[in-house]
DNA sequence: CGTGTGGCCTGACGTTACGGGAGGGTCAAC
DNA sequence: GTTGACCCTCCCGTAACGTCAGGCCACACG
């Protein structure tokens, strides 16, 4: 019953030391121990190890893997879909690199030399998402940004759809309250603001009330964000900011 | 003229510290320095950096990259072909993983649970080459084995063809001398043995005369290797061993 | 002509994900 | 009942950087 470290190591193609390490940092602790202190790995442990190795191979850090695996309420199927999506992306990236190599070969045979930009473009625009670059410039290096980047890295298309739906719901509720003439510091508006904050915490990063206030300011100051609300209703951006502020005051 | 660290870092999407590090370890030292000591990267430096990042992305260690890049007599085209080959392999591996995920999804929806072996098989047979596993068992952990593994990791199909051809030539020459009645300790036989040793050094690992002798012994003792020679001419394995021994004596 | 301000320099210590060995217990087998 | 394979827990080492700290350098601006 159960597998010893050596057996698991041989099975999974890792060293015993690696398993010890995963135990040390709490990433994978064997379900049982013999009275002599020997590690005994159970079937679910193997399952978890398989996932660990998978995400590791795709370049995730062990800490990231821990948060991915310990996300509450994710069934095996979600993991598989996520893995599928990640593989697809990674293969796409490698195919881009193939294209770049092909281009370089062509240039080489033609005797043309590439510009520095051309040479690095496959490395440069790591994510084809312009928003990500903007975010980097604004919040680059902050904890929140890092946390967000790490978490979103593993989201599937379906995750994103759910996020969009949730976000849309919040905006609609804000708009409804706004048009109904509910004051921004009314509990009803503040409750929506709080849901917005929770939404961020669930999907992106832990957003303190203080940070949430700053975010509200930006919704007004930055036309790119403001447009998101203004196109729903004129004056909504300011309303949302006020609601976030009011909610932050209430929370602190 | 030339690029500063910051410019290169921005261009290539790496940090300044990374470039400092590469300079420290001698992997990429800027072609010039200003009188104030500022690094100035030239066009060839960018070229080299691009290759470094390429091989790095594919999982090579910086030490391995250094040996790959500093291999004498490799033109840009060879690198490009090699990169193409590596990408192809890597994509193939990822596609295997996709297949494994698909299988797991199927099993999941069917309610079947996979055996431990099935779960890890995509990680297990890391290299589909049975010879590599045998080699690991015999020489696992030795410097020569490590060196060989590192170097061969980057060989293209064309490299392997050339290796095979070279090796075949040596065997034919051994066979010719053997059948012509040339004694194994004759200079002509010993010269072929020396060429064999150089062949190993060029493509696999630095083979000392002492190691070469051991290798000769194995050609006789291990039927798997012996067959290689015996199928060319009966008694050739022993002849080759004797030639390797004689040459080793001469060399020491 | 001083004075920021941003970029660059060299240490030097911190971190991640293990590798590898010392020193010592455990256990099935001969 | 001892031997060899396997396991344990420290503990130090390594690779590839991250992250300051303390101090030049260079050029724009008043």
From TrEMBL, chains A, B:
Residues 1-71 form the HTH merR-type domain. CDD domains: HTH_TipAL-Mta (cd01106). GO terms for molecular function: DNA binding; DNA-binding transcription factor activity. Keywords: Activator, DNA-binding, Transcription, Transcription regulation. InterPro entries: DNA-bd_dom_put_sf, MerR-type_HTH_dom, MerR_fam, TipA-like_antibiotic-bd, TipAS_dom. This is HTH-type transcriptional activator TipA. It comes from Planotetraspora mira.
């Amino acid at each position: 019953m159960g597998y010893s470290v050596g057996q698991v190591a041989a099975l999974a193609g890792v060293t015993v030391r690696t398993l010890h390490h995963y135990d040390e940092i709490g990433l994978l602790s064997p379900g049982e121990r013999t009275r002599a202190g020997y590690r005994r790995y159970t079937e679910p442990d193997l399952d978890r190890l398989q996932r660990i190795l998978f995400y590791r191979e795709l370049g995730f850090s062990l800490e990231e893997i821990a948060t991915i695996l310990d996300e509450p309420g994710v069934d095996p199927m979600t993991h598989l879909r996520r893995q599928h999506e990640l593989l697809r992306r990674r293969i796409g990236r490698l195919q881009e690199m193939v294209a770049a190599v092909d281009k370089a070969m062509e240039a080489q045979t033609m005797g043309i030399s590439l510009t520095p930009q051309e040479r690095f473009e496959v490395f440069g625009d790591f994510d084809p998402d312009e928003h990500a670059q903007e975010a980097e410039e604004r919040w680059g290096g902050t904890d929140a940004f890092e946390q967000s980047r790490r978490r979103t890295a593993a989201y599937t298309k379906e995750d994103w759809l759910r996020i969009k739906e949730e976000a849309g719901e919040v905006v609609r509720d804000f708009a409804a309250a706004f048009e109904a003439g509910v004051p921004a510091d009314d509990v009803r508006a503040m409750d929506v603001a709080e849901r917005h904050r929770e939404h961020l915490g669930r999907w992106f990063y832990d957003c303190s009330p203080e940070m949430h206030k700053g975010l509200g300011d930006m919704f007004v100051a930055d036309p790119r964000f403001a447009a998101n609300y203004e196109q729903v209703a004129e004056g909504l951006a300011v309303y949302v900011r006020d609601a976030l502020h009011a909610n932050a005051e209430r929370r602190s």
